[in-house]
Amino acid sequence: MQATLSALLVKASAEFVGLSSRADFEAAKARYVGPNGELTALMKQMGAVPKEQRPALGKLINETKGQLQVQLDAALARIGLAEITAQLGPPIDPTLPSPDAGSGTSHPLTLVREEMCRILRKAGFAVVEGPEVETEYYCFDALSTPADHPARDAQDTFYFPAQARFGNISKKVAEEKYLLRTHTSSVQIRTMLKGQPPLRVVSPGRVYRRDTSDATHSANFHQIECLYVDKHVTVRDLKALLDYIFASLLGKNTKTRFRPHYFGYTEPSFEVDLSAQHLPKVNKEWIEIGGCGMVDPAVFEGVGYDSTVWTGYAFGMGLERLAMLMYGIDDIRYFYQNDLRFLKQFT
Amino acid sequence: MKISRNWLKQYVALDASIDELKRAITLLGFEVEGVINTGLPPLTQVVVGEIKTREKHPNADKLSICTVDVGLAQGGVRTIVCGAPNCDVGNRVPVALPGAILPGDFKIKESKIRGQQSSGMLCAADELGLAGQASGLMLLSADAPIGSALNEIMPEGDTVFDLEVTPNRPDALSHIGMARELAAWFRRPVNFPPIIFRGITDEILRPDILASVRVEAPEDCLLYFGLGLTGVKVGPSPAWLQERLQAVGLRPVNNLVDVGNYVMLELGQPLHIFDAKKIKGQQLVVRRAVEGEKLRTLDGKERILSERMVVIADAVQPLVIAGIMGGVHAEVDAQTTDIVIEAACFRPQSIRGTARRLGLASDSSYRFERGVDPHGTVAAAYRAIDLIQATAGGTVVGPACLVGGDQSWMREIIISPDYIRERLGFYVSDQEMRGALEALNLIITAEVACAPTVNWTVKIPSYRTDLDRPIDLVEEVLRIYGTDRVPPALAVGPALADGDDDPIAIFNRQVTAYLVGQRFNEVVNYTLRSRQELGTWVSDAAAAELALANPFVDDQSHLRPTLVLGLLAALKLNQSRGVPATQLFETGRVFMELNGTVQEYLGAAFLLCHNPKERSWLVRSAPDFYTVKQHLIILAQQAGIDLASAELRPISGAGWGWQAGHAAAAGESSIGWSISGGLLDLTMVRAAGVEGTVWAGMLAILPEKLKSLVGHRRYQPFALFPTVLRDLALVVEATRPAEEVRRALLKIAQASTGPAFAIEAIEVFDVYLGQGLPGGKKSLGFSLSFRSQERTLTDDEVNAVFTKIQQQIVVDGSITVRS
């Protein structure tokens, strides 16, 4: 019997080594330890063995069975490994490029807008929005722009035909014309008419001027404006806000300067100059960046705020101009051409 | 406007450097757009010297060591190292002595140059700020007195500032105007030009020169003054007058014309001078033009006038377009001997309107449009008479014709210094404020104690029409105090209660973050597009509703109804430049029309391009409609729209550029939002010059329809018991939407399970057409998952339900179960 078992083991190992698939494995396994397997057949002969020999023989058979199982396990592991190797394929070449698109990108104007909103958010300003198609009242009249002011001329502002009707843009006066807003200041008026002071808002958005497009002018561009209305707002507060904005945006060594100026809706009014010679392509001491001032009492009266109680400031600037300054871009048209070699620089 | 420094110095003592002047003008509120220097700038410690000896520098080939006589007062002979080739003995040259500051802030000091002492610098022309090549030292004439300041022997230089004057400051549109401002800044007095002529005393009446003036348009002409002179002699202006005009860019013509221009630039009052012999009937009439009336203006062009325009006419015809430009018939010429001087004041709006309509602007109209002070009008005429008599002779003759001009001026502002301080937000003393106001000739005429403060009554001069309210004086004080002196402070930001960002901003931010995360590149396109593009891609009707009244260029004449056009244009540009582009997006306003009314929507759109020409070693599968669909579902979610439950309907018709059968839409304008997406029409894309296959998706929503989902989020409990799955294949018409079948199945499944447990989900996992199925049919494979919240389901109970479902689903006859 012992010889039979040994022979069986030798024969089985030789077979198991050659197994390469799970089906062959199962067949081989069945041939030895299956219900009709060779080892099973030997085990069935146990009944015919004399009683006193049974324990020794049983032990021998169990040992053989154990050895067979070890060999089967090894064969199965080998087959599993071979399967995985086949599934993996050849090793990768890490130097080959990925065919997938590179990272997505925000447009530089979006980056600058969001950065400004983030900085202003810290100073308590919330974003407000308004329509791009506006009426003369919100764009001009409420901002003390007289009816014959050059900015209102059809040479400078895009108008819609008298019969044009816009569903979701309210008119204050029936006979006024629709136009494309020339500044985001119209949003300030809408905000003041809708809410009550104190107010602290920032309105970023697209504006339109009827102008020749060149390296520094664009028929549509973007502005960002801040409005703060409260009691006891001062010129010094306005200067402090601008110092804070530009130090946050462009670095601590940025200085601002006020130059007295004139806007119909602020008094006093200033143009804001920046000194930021650490920026790329800046070769002047002072660069004009925006306009600002203390909200004119007439504007408050126009929206129903008591100008003896409420004071405020407003500040506005062009986003393109700011982006050009920050990134050293020298042609405004690049923002609207959308060449990906330009856009992908702002990942 | 150009202002000459030498001219200004006639009225105010200005010893400040050019840079200081520029800074003063800037901080007073006049932007300096350019500075043009002519001649030698004022220099100290730069004198005439004569080179006495010259030796080669021992340590440098190109340098010489010169001894230079600069006169005893400057220390006699000095040793100076010089690098110019022409530092020859005997030459008289400019010498900058230690302490001199040359243009460009170049300070001259005693120094050692390569070991040799040098006490000064011999100068080339460009080093002194003069034009000319730097070919060597500037050579002075042999009789230039040694030791004298260079400024003394050179003609005086000038500096011309090109200023931007804001429209509220017409009073600054003259040399006197700017002199007043600078006098206030530097706290100097203003020396007004003396006016000798004081009106006609011994009246010589010469109605044959000017008999009368009649103003028929008094609303447009507030004041008209006309006065004759006889016996003037036309000729060239004296040199000083020509020099003044040339400095600010005007071409001298003759003494009469030049005086007119000079007085305008000096005082800000435009004048007109007529040849009296050319005035028919010797009367001037200020009237509205007759519609269609013609006048050839001095620039040689024939102007057709309308009845809204004001002219100065004689008995027969118009001679001048009031306040803008004269006509050729009454022009002064070489033979002129008798003249009429006009000094008038016209309504700014009238001049502005006429100038705009005629497309004609002049120095005169520029000033009238902004406003001329009528209280200085007659004085300007008198000033001109002085100058005409000085340069062309002549005798003043009557009658002096003055019409209008009787508006009195009396304006006072009551203000307290505390009010000013409160607006400024920092301390400025009463005394300093008073000083600032009075420097601007804003005189405090009364001071009334009004505890705890004081009220000042400030008298406003007639030329400062811009000052009307206390707040206006805050700016005046700050201007003179110096806007650069506003003390720094911390920006203080209290949180406001309802300070949430507008939902539009939040939506744009979310959409951008999602699409950037999905590797899209954001683009920004113009809002205005061409009519032809809208007609091709959208519809002619839409194009008609979206047109501007006054486009500037043809290809930007209409509002965009979709962002896809811009995305496609950006794709095309990149392809044409050989730049691979596959995924683009944009957010922005779009405009769509519904029943003749246009609405402004928020838009978000994206584009995917599969261009087989862009090769790769490893090929990814191309995007398809279902790529677009998933992006749309997420965009919709960000707008608060649950697109999963809304029906996406196939787009079959033309319009908006979709490929019929390969695109779908949901929502519509009438409910405030619409979504569409899919394949762009292959033929149209090709016709537009774009390569590859292009998919796009867009969402448009009215701002007020935006909903935030944040507030609606609620936790739902979920079961921990296992699901039981069953698969079911159903055969239906090939054209029938899968979602319709799925919903029918879901309804039956829900009814069949009853309350005992739940059908958790039914998903399509297979769509099959072809062999083994009848023609025109398709098979949809659904996976049904069942789950109970309370226990593990048994196969038997699920099987019972599954059998019931299979029986029910075939009842209406449109669906069969595939075995």
Structure description:
The complex is a heterodimer of chains A (347) and B (819). In chain A, β6 and β7 form a beta hairpin. Chain A folds into two domains: 2-88; 108-346, Bira Bifunctional Protein, Domain 2 (BirA Bifunctional Protein, domain 2), CATH 3.30.930. Chain A has 347 residues and is α+β, with helices and mostly antiparallel strands. In chain A, strands 1-4-5-9-8-7-6 form a seven-stranded mixed β-sheet, sandwiched between helices. The mean pLDDT of chain A is 91. Chain A has helices at 2-17, 22-33, 38-44, 54-88, 108-122, 136-139, 185-194, 235-250, 297-302, 319-327, 334-337, 340-343; strands at residues 126-127, 133-135, 178-180, 199-208, 220-230, 255-263, 266-275, 287-295, 311-318. The termini of chain B are far apart. Chain B is built from 20 helices and 39 strands. Chain B has six domains: 2-39 and 159-186, Phenylalanyl-tRNA Synthetase, Chain B, domain 1 (2-Layer Sandwich), CATH 3.30.56; 46-154, Nucleic acid-binding proteins (OB fold (Dihydrolipoamide Acetyltransferase, E2P), Beta Barrel), CATH 2.40.50.140; 212-404, Phenylalanyl-tRNA Synthetase, Chain B, domain 3 (3-Layer(bba) Sandwich), CATH 3.50.40.10; 412-481, Phenylalanyl-tRNA Synthetase, Chain B, domain 1 (2-Layer Sandwich), CATH 3.30.56; 503-710, BirA Bifunctional Protein, domain 2; 724-817, Alpha-Beta Plaits (2-Layer Sandwich). Chain B has a seven-stranded mixed β-sheet, with helices on both faces. Chain B has a five-stranded antiparallel β-sheet with strand order 5-4-3-6-11, with no helix packed on it. Chain B has a five-stranded mixed β-sheet with strand order 13-16-19-20-21. In chain B, α5 (239-247) packs across α6 (255-267) and α19 crosses α20 (795-809). In chain B, a hairpin with a 7-residue loop joins β4 and β5 (77-82). Chains A and B meet through α5, β1, β4, α8 and β6 of A and α7, α10, α12, α13 and β27 of B.
